[in-house]
Amino acid sequence: MARLAEPSPLKLVTEARVVLEYLALRAALPRLRREVPRGDGSPVLVVPGFATDDSWTATLRGFLSDVGWTVRGWGLGRNGGKVATLLPLLTARVEDLALSAGGPVRVVGWSLGGYLAREVARERPEIVERVVTLGTPVVGGPKYTASARGYRRRGYDVDAIERQVRQREATPLRAAVAAVYSRSDGVVAWRACLDLVNDTVEHHEVDASHLGLIFSVASYRLVAGLLARPRARRRTRAA
Fold it and tell me: Are strands 128-134 and 105-110 parallel, antiparallel or unpaired?
């Protein structure tokens, strides 16, 4: 794999294309609702990215609800990035939904939200049916993102975080994960979205900005198709 690095400031500027992506989405929504596979009413939890909250995923959640899913926001306010604090809270949220549904649930996570969703699935695979991540850095934590400089300014050791992320891979993922990424991503280095460790992860490329991963026609069409896949076959834990 080519050397990883955080996206350049110039590439971050290209995130402005989200305005056009959003306008195209609004025009395409009536057609998309007719064309994508229908959900079966099962619960889907949508987790926002770093420094955002449920308001950012409202359009995606509304679309998924319109096509047949029972959709919930994560309900934990702004995603401040404190994984150690947020992970048990999100796990409890998924656990409650699974208990109400009588089985594992689907989780869609954008950016850092996808990392949190993966880690819930890693620790509690029995309550997660499938995870769809959107522009999620699974390599390096914030190190290969546009947030890296901000983390360093606040005194975080991003190299230490990268080691911690790597250490968690000692416990393999058993739930099915679909990793959606874009080479046009101006916030997260796209290569950092590729999981080359877990064989339950498959990758899907779209052409979108990082923000466009929750505001683009291509993403919506892909997410709807991924969620509608038949129940995933479970990988058993090695003895």
Answer: parallel
Domain locations along the chain:
23-227
Do 172 and 132 meet the contact criterion of CB atoms below 8 Å apart?
A: no
Residues 66 and 39 sit within 8 Å (Cβ to Cβ): no
Question: How deeply is 221 buried, as exposed, middle or buried, from its count of CB atoms within 10 A (0-12, 13-18, 19+)?
Answer: middle
Looking at residue 98, what is its pLDDT? 98
pLDDT of res. 236 = 45
- 223 phi, psi to nearest 5 deg: -60, -45
Among candidate residues 134, 53, 39, 40, the one with its CA nearest the CA of residue 86: 53
- Would you state the structure tokens that stand for residue 24, as one six-digit string? 């195209």
- What is the DSSP annotation of 198-210? -TTEEEEE----T
Mean per-residue pLDDT, 66-82: 97
Residues 131, 119, 189, 192, CA torsion sign: negative
- Closest by CA to 120, choosing from 84, 94, 82, is 94
DSSP 8-state code for residue 186? S
Structural element, H or E, at residue 28: helix 18-35
Percentages (nearest 5) of helix, strand, coil residues in the chain: 50, 15, 40
Handedness of CA 171, 173, 189, 148 (dihedral sign): negative
What CATH number should be reported for the domain whose range is 23-227? Answer: 3.40.50.1820
